[in-house]
């Protein structure tokens, strides 16, 4: 007898939910009232218990699917003599490995990509058809318009089919691949001391060589980066747990290789004559989804907002002296270095209290004033510009701000920021000075109404007390939405930031 598992009543005015997590897989035994899966609504999380004891035959609604009230989630075969789980009958491509005898087919689905993200591009497959996979081993990497998402194997077995090849654009909850699960599936996998499925002879690499002999797998993103940079595993020093190579380790190895003495490089082969046709000397590379989104959002900002920029300059001498005097004590006590960003973040938080429209946004015909500051800190990464958000920055100390910026920056460089960490910002700071920019006009990060551009600190002759002296000066630029922020408010904001930085004691006294 088969018992259906359906979506329970979700509550007043709640008509649908998203399947967040399955705690069981097809073929598993279940007891009455044992938790099968978890649903997420816009209000609460709902656990779904098993209505009967038996075997979970199949899962109808996979993780990430949106389901309505009373929708069918799964089927349970009651009693001890429950039938084996059924593989879903779907049309399969011709090129695939045979499913393992007696193994259940488990679909690999696109995971939940995040709020407002509906599709992704398959950037890299770390496994090929016929490979053995362990549960939670990384199968592929997806690239969305915000972050990269690694997809783990939902079960151990053999990868029998890849549905979405590299470069394919897939929607949320689309099928990526099929795994023949169970112990029997391992028989179809290559043996570590024999012949590969295609008849190719190979041996097991020694431990530490990045091959199957290692207990610790390098990060899939790092493997991809090593392949792109043409680096072998022994050319990269891993900084992760137990020597695991991370993406940042590969970047360091590439940088070290590029700074090596030219004399150590082998003699270059004679160059072929340059073809006359310019097209033959061009390289065409498809824009990443992140770069496409950056381009679209920046153009939308120009088309939608009335962007205007006002400038000022600040004498950084007082901040530099204070930082120099206390940086060692600060790092010793708080375990993080004292940088300039905490001063700018604090100064902006104080200025936003006085000029709240710079921390507001337009929603239709309404102006939404934010009585908090979620500070976006723009950061450049190899994949493009991202803006992690420091939440409630106005309530944080200098040390808390520095720790948050340091942690978010590292996650951004490693490509590990989640969508949630880049959403909800109310104001943004962009530091072009780290790249040597002397002056520029930053562009708004919608729906925010203001962004502060920092620039390079440069010694310039200034008149102080009737005398020409050399002072460390920085140009500041505030771009703002003139639909909501008037010129007076923008200038006042920038002057308050300047005053706070030129006399940092004002920050301590909340002036």
From TrEMBL:
EC number: 2.3.1.61
Ranges of biased composition (kind: Low complexity): 258-277
InterPro entries hit by this protein: 2-oxoacid_dehydrogenase, 2-oxoacid_DH_actylTfrase, Biotin_lipoyl, PSBD, SucB
Keywords carried by this UniProt record: Acyltransferase, Lipoyl, Transferase, Tricarboxylic acid cycle
GO molecular function: dihydrolipoyllysine-residue succinyltransferase activity
Pathway: Amino-acid degradation; L-lysine degradation via saccharopine pathway; glutaryl-CoA from L-lysine: step 6/6
Pfam families the UniProt entry points to: 2-oxoacid_dh (PF00198), Biotin_lipoyl (PF00364), E3_binding (PF02817)
Regions of compositional bias (Basic and acidic residues) in chain numbering: 212-233
Alphabetized CDD domains for the sequence: lipoyl_domain
Region of interest (Disordered), residue spans: 82-101, 189-243, 258-281
Catalysed conversion reaction: N(6)-[(R)-dihydrolipoyl]-L-lysyl-[protein] + succinyl-CoA = N(6)-[(R)-S(8)-succinyldihydrolipoyl]-L-lysyl-[protein] + CoA
Names of required cofactors: (R)-lipoate
Residue ranges of every copy of the Lipoyl-binding domain listed in the record: 2-77, 105-180
Domain Peripheral subunit-binding (PSBD): 217-254
Family label: Belongs to the 2-oxoacid dehydrogenase family.
Protein task: E2 component of the 2-oxoglutarate dehydrogenase (OGDH) complex which catalyzes the second step in the conversion of 2-oxoglutarate to succinyl-CoA and CO(2).
Name of protein: Dihydrolipoyllysine-residue succinyltransferase component of 2-oxoglutarate dehydrogenase complex
Organism from which the protein derives: Thalassococcus arenae
Source species taxonomy: Bacteria, Pseudomonadati, Pseudomonadota, Alphaproteobacteria, Rhodobacterales
């Amino acid at each position: 007898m088969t018992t259906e598992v359906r979506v329970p009543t979700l509550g007043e005015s709640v008509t649908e939910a998203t399947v967040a997590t399955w705690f069981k897989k097809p073929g598993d035994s279940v007891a009455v009232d044992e938790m099968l899966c978890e649903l997420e609504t816009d209000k609460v999380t709902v656990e779904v218990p098993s209505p009967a004891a038996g075997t979970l035959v199949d899962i109808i609604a996979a993780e990430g699917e949106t389901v309505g009230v009373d929708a069918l989630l799964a089927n349970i075969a009651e009693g001890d003599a429950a039938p084996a789980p059924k593989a879903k009958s779907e049309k399969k491509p011709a090129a695939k490995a045979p499913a393992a005898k007696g193994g259940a087919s488990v679909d690999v689905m696109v995971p939940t990509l995040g709020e407002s993200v509906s599709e992704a591009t398959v950037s890299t497959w770390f496994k090929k058809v016929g490979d053995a996979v362990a549960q939670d081993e990384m199968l592929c990497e997806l690239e969305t318009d915000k972050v990269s998402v690694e997809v783990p194997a939902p079960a151990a077995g053999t990868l029998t089919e890849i549905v979405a090849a590299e470069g394919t654009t897939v929607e949320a909850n689309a099928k990526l691949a099929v795994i023949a699960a169970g112990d029997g599936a391992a028989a179809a996998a290559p043996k570590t001391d024999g012949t590969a499925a295609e008849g190719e002879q190979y041996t097991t690499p020694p431990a530490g060589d990045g091959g199957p002999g290692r207990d610790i797998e390098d990060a899939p993103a790092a493997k991809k980066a090593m392949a792109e940079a043409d680096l072998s595993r022994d050319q990269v020093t891993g900084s992760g747990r137990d020597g695991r190579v991370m993406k940042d380790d590969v970047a360091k190895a590439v940088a070290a290789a590029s700074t090596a003495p030219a004399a150590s490089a082998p003699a270059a082969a004679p160059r072929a004559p340059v073809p006359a046709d310019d097209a033959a000397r061009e390289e065409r590379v498809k824009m990443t989804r992140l770069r496409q989104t950056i381009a679209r959002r920046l153009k939308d900002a120009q088309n939608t907002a009335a962007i205007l920029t006002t400038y000022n300059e600040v004498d950084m001498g007082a901040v530099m002296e204070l930082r120099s005097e206390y940086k060692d004590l600060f790092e010793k006590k708080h375990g993080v270095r004292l940088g300039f960003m905490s001063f700018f973040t604090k100064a902006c938080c104080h200025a936003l209290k006085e000029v709240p429209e710079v921390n507001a946004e337009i929603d239709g015909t309404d102006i939404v004033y934010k009585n908090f500051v979620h500070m976006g800190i723009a950061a450049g990464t190899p994949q493009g510009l991202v803006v992690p958000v420091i939440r409630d920055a106005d309530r944080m100390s200098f040390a808390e701000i520095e720790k948050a910026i340091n942690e978010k920056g590292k996650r951004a460089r490693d490509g590990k920021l989640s969508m949630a960490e880049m959403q909800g910002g109310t104001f943004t700071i962009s530091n072009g000075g780290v790249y040597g920019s002397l002056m520029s006009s930053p562009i708004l990060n919608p729906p925010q109404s203001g962004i502060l551009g920092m620039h390079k600190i440069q010694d310039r002759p200034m008149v102080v007390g009737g005398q020409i002296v050399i002072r460390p000066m920085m140009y500041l630029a505030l771009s703002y939405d003139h639909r909501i922020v008037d010129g007076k408010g923008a200038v006042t904001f920038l002057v308050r930031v300047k005053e706070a930085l030129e006399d940092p004691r004002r920050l301590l006294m909340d002036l």
